Amino acid sequence: MAAILATEGLTKNFGGLRALDSVSLQFEEGKLTSVIGPNGAGKTTFFNLLTGLIKPDLGKIIFKGEDITKLPIHGIVRKGISRSFQIINLFNEMTLFENVWLGVQAQQGHGTEFFADSDRFRSIRDETFRVIKETGLAGKEETPVKLLSYGDRRILEITLSLTPKPTLLLLDEPTSGLVSEDRKRISEFMKKISSRLTLVVVEHDMDVVMSISDHIVVFSQGGVLAQGPPNEIRGNQEVQEAYLGGQYCLV
Amino acid sequence: MVWIFVLFFFFPKFPFIGKYLSLGTEVMIWSLFAVGFNILLGYTGLTSFGHGAYFGIGAYTAGIIFLRVYPGFWVPLLLSIVGGALFAGLVGLIVAKKRGIYFSLLTIAFGQVFYFIAFRWEELTGGETGLSKIDRIPIGIPGLFQVKLSNPINYYYVCWAIFLIATIVVWKIVHSPFGKVIQGIRENEVRTRYLGYNVYFYKWASVTLSGAFAGLAGGLYTFLINSAFATVLDWTQSGNVVMMNLLGGGLVNFFGPILGATIFISSRDLLSAYISRASFALHFEIDWLFIYGLIFVFVILFIPTGILGLISGKKRAVLR
Fold first, then answer.
1. Do A158 and A166 touch, CB atoms closer than 8 A?
2. What average pLDDT is seen over chain B?
3. What is the Cα–Cα distance from B253 to B312, expressed in whole angstroms?
């Protein structure tokens, strides 16, 4: 299988702390990979590096055979990598419609028109309505995002990460803070989209992880502790001890 | 929108205040400056304390071109727009990488650089004495019609027309796809990047565009007072335009800057007259800047969204 994304010796220090220590990983095209590990293991740092929010001290990031290590965020997004955030990160004072509009507008390559009435862009408008309908948030278009329920904002968070039409999507704890009903909704949604793109998901809910993943990577203390298919990880003694520390049960 | 320009149109006919014609012209010039500045402040959410410099550069450009190159009206004025945009664009290359307080501090620093250059480069700017004898020569189409700009009322209406056009242009800009992106940057810069926008370009464009309007306002101002002094580049000018926006409610309403500029300019003239009279009576020197500082503090503390924000009950900056 061809790797769509590969990292080579990715290293990041924050002051004296080594947040990520020479991580070399490969992500296969079309697969759903879960990244698990205790808090502070370097999962979000890993995502931040992959998408250009911070730059690595050492190492390379290869996407579809191309070195993207030095690209800015928008350059990486345009190559086809997108992400969602662990802490919901939206345009809070704007309406749901305006949030999605901004994403669709970027995807369609608009934004530099200084002098054109934005209401005239029918293709952005139609696509925005279509996307909102697809997410099941139709009817709330004019609601300011800050007034939406937590579950709805979680869904919008994922929706905005999809508007650039990525081929590789990184989801950072997409079910965090959700009640079980919404969790189910989102894990089903992830399963659905995993058929058309490559997904990498940071997730704490083991039920979700075990049921949706093709492959699991376990992070610990800035490095990769183990990786493999779900049943292999489930039986891995080292993972049980180091990562779980008796807090969770993998069975 | 229409009624604002109707009011300004009939201002010279108003009883009592109508005779303060040059005050009216000055209000419109500053309103134009403030409306353009709000692309950056209200819509992009970046506070520049250095845009007085581009107003000043526009003022000097108009003066220098008039005295040395082409003693007309339109050519110096057009070049004052170019001058404002050019220098704002150059500074923008650096400041657009920053945000928040770092952005503001850098804009102050660059503003001061231009101030000292204008002050010291006597050959070009006239130094302390500035430039004078920048006349308003007649405009029109030769042989067809002619408007004598030297007549203050004619100049008032030329400024009115330019102010109207500039306001429409700014309105178009902030309601374009570009306008949506800069509002996205104001709300959430990181997310805007993650949607695929080159945020650096948009911030640079916003600095440059607002610089162009500042330059235009500066050019008009030079022709109003028939001269250009280094004081037009002073940092207080940069503070003034921020103040006008905040006072009127530029953070919540497109027209806030116009209200702010109107109140600011007219009360400055009124207050300075009263203050100097009071100072004389009290044998105690009160500076206009003292009152100015008090107003600034009052606005920031008690009406952070300005007068229009207070009226509409908006407590947070939401500008569409």
1. no
2. 89
3. 10
What is the C-alpha separation between A8 and B30, in angstroms, rounded? 57
Percent residues over pLDDT 90 in chain A: 65
- Say which DSSP state B42 is in: I
B163 in Cβ contact with B8 (< 8 Å): yes
* Contact yes or no for B192 and A107 at CB 8 A: no
Taking the C-alpha atoms of residue B194 and residue A82, their distance in angstroms, rounded to an integer, is 7
Q: Whole-model pTM?
A: 0.91
Q: Which residue has the higher pLDDT, B307 or A243?
A: B307
d(CA B3, CA B11): 12
pLDDT in tens, B220-238: 999 999 889 888 888 888 9
Phi then psi for residue A244, to 5 deg, are: -75, -35
Contacts of A6 (CB under 8 A, 6+ apart): A24, A25, A26, A27, A61, A62
Residues of A whose CB is below 8 A from B183: 94
Which residues touch B164 (CB under 8 Å, ≥6 apart)?
B5
Amino acid code (one letter) for B155: Y
Using beta carbons and an 8 Å cutoff, which residues of B are at the interface with A?
169, 172-173, 175-181, 183-184, 187-188, 190-202, 205, 209, 316-318
ipTM: 0.92
Token pair 């009939």: residue: B10
Helices and strands, number each (H, E), in chain A: 9, 10
pLDDT in tens, B261-289: 999 988 887 777 777 777 777 777 777 77
Residues of A in contact with B198 (CB under 8 A): 72, 74
Minimal CA–CA distance to A11: which of A67, A44, A58? A58
Which helix (H) or strand (E) segment holds residue B94: the answer is helix B74-95
In whole angstroms, what is the distance from residue B295 CA to residue B316 CA? 20
pLDDT at A251: 43
Residue B316: the pLDDT is 67
Q: Does pLDDT of A178 surpass 80?
A: yes
The alpha carbon of residue B314 is apart from the nearest alpha carbon of chain A, in Å, by 12
| pLDDT at residue number A172 | 94
Contact criterion met (CB < 8 Å) for B178 and A82: no
Contact A113/B178, CB-based, under 8 Å?
yes
Query: Are B195 and A98 inside 8 Å of each other by CB?
Result: no
